[in-house]
Design goal:
Among the domains are: 8-70 and 116-205 and 312-382, FAD/NAD(P)-binding domain (3-Layer(bba) Sandwich); 79-108 and 208-304, D-Amino Acid Oxidase, Chain A, domain 2; 386-417, no CATH class. 26% of the residues lie in helices and 22% in strands. The chain contains 16 helices and 22 strands. It has helices spanning 20-32, 60-65, 115-128, 190-198, 273-280, 284-290, 337-356, 365-373, 375-381, 386-393, 395-410, 425-428, 451-455, 477-486, 490-493, 522-526; strands at residues 8-16, 38-42, 56-57, 78-79, 82-88, 93-95, 111-112, 132-135, 139-144, 150-155, 174-183, 210-219, 229-235, 244-250, 255-263, 294-304, 315-316, 319-321, 470-472, 499-504, 507-512, 532-534. Strands 1, 2, 8, 9, 10, 11, 17 and 18 form an eight-stranded mixed sheet that branches. Strands 6-5-13-14-15-12-16 form a seven-stranded mixed sheet, covered by helices on one side. The longest helix has 20 residues, at 337-356. The two termini are 36 Å apart.
């Protein structure tokens, strides 16, 4: 803990992250007891600025939290009207019929939404109940109590010197103490990572697995727009190089979400996820939809894909992990927002009961019991084998095996038991000599775009004089290990062009353009020697997503 003198503010519950999990927890706490002091701290410049999701929303989480959400004007305006699955080849596609799919794959009753806008609306509901919501407040460190419990966070540090030291213009921030602290930072949050390591919460669980999701918003020709249409594809262009697929969602105002997910357990370090996404848009089916349209926004975010068997222990003294800090995405459904909301509600109920009983700063075991034994656990348990089957047997075999396993799980049993994931995504990366380089076509500037042009459509911005928030544990490793052994994969796996190898005085040099960072966390996950540590930059920095 730092020796800096700071003012401290006391709360009943301190919540880090104004995503669906954190805001649900805040709302539920105030529904249960209007007198509780609850604060939500958000590192984005506004609520929703860092929210990026597909998203087709299953409203069950919102139904449980705010049953009259329709009357209250929640921005769920586009019900799913059409559900398509395709297997793509380079020049064509085969439609996969809906009838053999297990019922959980049905999108009837779900909504195409901007989760950024849903979170903006949820923040309004929270504030009406008396929750304090502070955007632009990055939480840079945890505060521990005398018994080793988490007692609060440090938020609002601004103006550090480039070397990370405190200078004459540094604002030291504040300590916000809570009887309980909820970490709802999303995937691979920096504070959650610290808590998981400190209390060994991953012990006995499978390693967490991840995907990289990239997304563009397009305005398309009204004649091609079909509001309420949901399309998912698999196959080309990834083929056997990586797991993953695409989503195309038609929302209102002639807008379409075009997204692409690459599972980060790919072996070939030459793979370039961003360019796979750009190549995908040249498939005849996709190109025809986008022709004559224009891209209006771009962003990227890691997705937790480990599911049921990868969820760490969720509680430690004084602290609980919510939503994607735990990893609650149902991979075949490509949905996690409903579970994030349910986890926030469950954490709030456990904390409220504890506070009523005069407890504080202990482990909220009732929260973990509810997550594992309740609706979230049931949702994730049914699909727990889909991801490991895909990793083990590839796309075609896993479609049949995964579908079969989901059907049997719907009936209450599995012939596979619970399969293991094995390696971390970083450890899955193999030396470059084992693989061929992949030739990617040059972006045409109409359908496909170079990375830096696209990053400008994420409206990302970082104060340049601050310390680089992407910390290297050993600054020699990129050039000494990653370049000769893995062909410098950070120059490709980052969807924002943060990392590059340049030549200086005849020698390679590793450059970090942290201003480009869209906070996706891929580098923290995929770097083979695990040498990059993603930490939070100062509050308000990063992307400014409109309606992602």
């Amino acid at each position: 803990m730092s020796e800096i003198e700071r003012e401290a503010m006391e709360y009943d519950v301190v919540i880090v992250g104004a995503g669906p999990a954190g805001l649900s927890a805040a709302i539920r706490l105030k529904q249960l007891d209007a007198d509780l002091n609850v604060v939500v701290l958000e590192k984005g410049s506004e609520v929703g600025a860092h929210i990026l999701s597909g998203a087709v929303l299953d409203p069950c989480g919102l139904d449980a939290l705010i049953p009259d959400w329709k009357e209250k004007g929640a921005p769920l305006n586009v019900p799913v009207r059409e559900d398509n699955f395709y297997m793509l080849g380079e020049g064509g596609e085969v439609r996969i019929p809906n009838w053999p799919m297990p019922p959980l794959m049905n999108n009837h009753g779900n909504y195409i939404v901007s989760m950024g806008n849903v979170c903006r609306w949820m923040a309004e509901q929270a504030e009406e109940l008396g929750v304090e919501v502070f955007p632009g407040m990055a939480c840079s460190e945890l505060v521990y109590g005398d018994s080793g419990e988490v007692k609060g966070v440090v938020a609002g540090v601004f103006g550090l010197e480039p070397d990370g030291s405190y200078g004459p213009n540094t604002e030291p921030g504040m300590e916000l103490h809570g009887k309980y602290v909820f970490l709802s930072e999303g995937v691979r949050g920096s504070l959650a990572k610290e808590v998981i390591a400190k209390y060994d919460l991953q012990n006995g669980k499978e390693p967490q697995k991840f995907g990289l999701g990239m997304k563009e918003i397009w305005e398309v020709d009204p004649a091609k727009h079909n509001e309420g249409e949901v399309t998912h594809t698999m196959g080309w262009p990834l083929g056997g190089n990586a797991g993953g697929g695409s989503f195309i969602y038609h929302l209102e105002n002639n807008q379409v979400y075009v997204g692409f997910v690459v599972h980060l357990n790919y072996k070939n370090p030459h793979l370039y996820p961003y360019m796979e996404f750009q190549r995908f848009k040249h498939h005849p089916k996709v190109a025809e939809l986008l022709k004559g349209g224009k891209r209006v926004a771009y962003g990227a975010r890691a997705i937790s894909e480990g599911g049921y068997q990868s969820m760490p222990k969720m509680v430690a003294p004084g602290v609980a992990l919510l939503g994607c800090s735990v990893g609650m995405v149902n991979v075949p459904r490509i949905k996690g927002n409903h579970n994030a909301m349910l986890s926030g509600k469950a954490a709030a109920e456990a904390a409220h009961a504890a506070l009523q009983a005069g407890r504080q700063s202990d482990e909220l075991t009732a929260y973990e019991d509810e997550v594992r034994g309740g609706a979230i656990g049931k949702d994730l348990k049914k699909v727990r084998n889909v991801k490991p089957l895909w990793s083990k047997f590839g796309l075609t075999a896993s479609l049949a095996l995964g579908g079969f396993d989901m059907w049997t799980n719907t009936l209450g049993f599995s012939l596979f038991g619970t399969l293991r994931h094995g390696k971390t995504d970083a450890a899955a990366t193999e030396p470059a000599t084992k693989h061929r380089e992949i030739a990617y076509p040059k972006p045409d500037g109409t359908l496909s775009f170079d990375r830096l042009t696209n990053v400008s459509f994420s409206m990302t911005n970082h104060e340049e004089s601050q310390p680089c928030h992407l910390k290297l544990k050993d600054p020699t490793i990129p050039v000494a290990v990653n370049l000769p052994e893995y062909a410098g994969p950070s120059a490709r796996y980052c969807p924002a062009g943060v990392y590059e190898f340049v030549e200086k005085d005849g020698k390679p040099e590793f450059v970090i353009n942290f201003q480009n960072c869209v906070h996706c966390k891929t580098c923290d996950i995929k770097d083979p020697p695990q040498n990059i540590n993603w930490t939070t930059p100062q509050g308000g920095d990063g992307p400014n997503y409109p309606n992602m």
